[in-house]
Amino acid sequence: METHNFSIEFFPPKTDEGADKLRVVRQKLALLAPKYFSVTFGAGGTTQQGTLQTVLEIQSEGHAAAPHLSCVGGTAESLRAILQQFQDSGIRRLVALRGDLPSGYGGGGEFRYANELVEFIRKETGDWFHIEVAAYPEMHPQARSPQDDLQAFARKVQAGANAAITQYFYNADAYFEFVDNARKLGVDVPVVAGIMPITNYTQLMRFSDMCGAEIPRWVRMKLASYGDDTASIKAFGLDVVTSLCERLLAGGAPGLHFYSMNQAAATTAIWQRLVK
Ligand SMILES: Cc1cc2nc3c(=O)[nH]c(=O)nc-3n(C[C@H](O)[C@H](O)[C@H](O)COP(=O)(O)OP(=O)(O)OC[C@H]3O[C@@H](n4cnc5c(N)ncnc54)[C@H](O)[C@@H]3O)c2cc1C
């Protein structure tokens, strides 16, 4: 199987212990030879230095790395400085996002939507960066309608994005429908499917509520029925997510982006089954 569009996402560790653990996780995941690792970026300044630090460490280990960059709460000046730092560090690809404001934050700011960030990056740095943007097969939770959300996605590509990574989902049809509709609008960039391995029922439900990803009822019921039996949750999760990936790749998905949650086991298990 082709692995050219296979990538793995981390979040920047908050403690030295977390950083040590992530080094071990990275060593294991590097054996799968992903095209690149990406590192998330906290809106509101929380983990911005952590993002760059982690990216630099990954690069120094000889792997390609892409920082995420969110614009909400940022200014042209602050974003220009970050882009300059990225360029000075030899970073050639990034994931450009709006980000989410912490609750209680008033809003406003110089950048309202991710298409404005993409436009800004192109204006400031030309073609230096390969830019990935987010896509939502099951609709972004704040969008007015699927059509509006698709238009917003198209605007990010028109502003200069090279490719997209989707929010995770467990309904393959939602992905295929989204890509078909994007193609009808003339959007022809690769839309890489975001994959969330299933290892923990409570965590999955919490995340999915926040980001608007639907867990199909039969999957939810089965996971809930396992209670504290984590081995069964993991085994069932592995089956469900591997068949999702198989269906996506067979149906033409150009690649997979794994939300690793800084863990190696689940992503490795899925990947090994896929390449068998
Ligand atoms: C692959 C991936 C990686 C991510 N990484 C991070 C990360 O590192 N850090 C982080 O903080 N968050 C991250 N997120 C979460 C993301 O920041 C949130 O989902 C955020 O709410 C939206 O970001 P966006 O870039 O998709 O925004 P946008 O594309 O700007 O869309 C946001 C919302 O605004 C709507 N919209 C867009 N333009 C307009 C307009 N002109 N008028 C009205 N409505 C409009 C859209 O329909 C959508 O509902 C990631 C998400 C994905 C899928």
UniProtKB/TrEMBL annotation:
<dbReference type="InterPro" id="IPR003171">
    <property type="entry name" value="Mehydrof_redctse-like"/>
</dbReference>
<keyword id="KW-0274">FAD</keyword>
<dbReference type="GO" id="GO:0005829">
    <property type="term" value="C:cytosol"/>
</dbReference>
<comment type="pathway">
    <text>One-carbon metabolism; tetrahydrofolate interconversion.</text>
</comment>
<keyword id="KW-0560">Oxidoreductase</keyword>
<comment type="similarity">
    <text>Belongs to the methylenetetrahydrofolate reductase family.</text>
</comment>
<dbReference type="InterPro" id="IPR004620">
    <property type="entry name" value="MTHF_reductase_bac"/>
</dbReference>
<dbReference type="Pfam" id="PF02219">
    <property type="entry name" value="MTHFR"/>
</dbReference>
<keyword id="KW-0486">Methionine biosynthesis</keyword>
<keyword id="KW-0285">Flavoprotein</keyword>
<keyword id="KW-0028">Amino-acid biosynthesis</keyword>
<comment type="pathway">
    <text>Amino-acid biosynthesis; L-methionine biosynthesis via de novo pathway.</text>
</comment>
<dbReference type="GO" id="GO:0009086">
    <property type="term" value="P:methionine biosynthetic process"/>
</dbReference>
<dbReference type="GO" id="GO:0035999">
    <property type="term" value="P:tetrahydrofolate interconversion"/>
</dbReference>
<dbReference type="GO" id="GO:0071949">
    <property type="term" value="F:FAD binding"/>
</dbReference>
<protein>
    <recommendedName>
        <fullName>Methylenetetrahydrofolate reductase</fullName>
        <ecNumber>1.5.1.54</ecNumber>
    </recommendedName>
</protein>
<dbReference type="GO" id="GO:0106312">
    <property type="term" value="F:methylenetetrahydrofolate reductase (NADH) activity"/>
</dbReference>
<keyword id="KW-0520">NAD</keyword>
<dbReference type="InterPro" id="IPR029041">
    <property type="entry name" value="FAD-linked_oxidoreductase-like"/>
</dbReference>
